[in-house]
Amino acid sequence: MAEFPAAWIALFIFAFAVFVIVRPLFLSQSAIEAAQGVDAWATQLRRQADLLTARRDVYAALRDLDFEYSTDKVSQEEYGRQRYKLMGQAVDILQQIDQLPPLGDDPIESALGGSNSIAEESGEVYYCSNCGEEVGLTDHFCGSCGSELVEEAST
Ligand SMILES: [Zn+2]
Fold this sequence. Notes:
The chain is mainly α. Helix content is 63%, strand content 3%. A hairpin with a 6-residue loop joins strand 1 and strand 2 (134-135).
């Protein structure tokens, strides 16, 4: 008659073992998902930064080309050819930037409950009216050509 309770005890131990084994799996699953969220966000941010860098490089190359052409270092034919190529690259990059999915809230910033201190990253981008270089929202002078940045009239 001692077999019956022994079976129950065995079952209880088994159930408890399953509970102990399975519980951390669920815990780590949510931790993995949280980490993946941060990871995906970081990847997206990196891609956006790469595209912005590429755009800046193409603009710089166009500026250099214009300068070389103005100093007769390149023929008109070569200038036209190079410029056409660079403009194609610029259009390609701009299209890729346009197609970027909207960058969600910074999961780290959200977790900290902080305000969004990186307005530039979320699409608030301004350009120098003189050279076309990207400038900060609060900049008074262009970091590239040094010309004074005139704030566009807002009503
Ligand atoms: Zn400038």
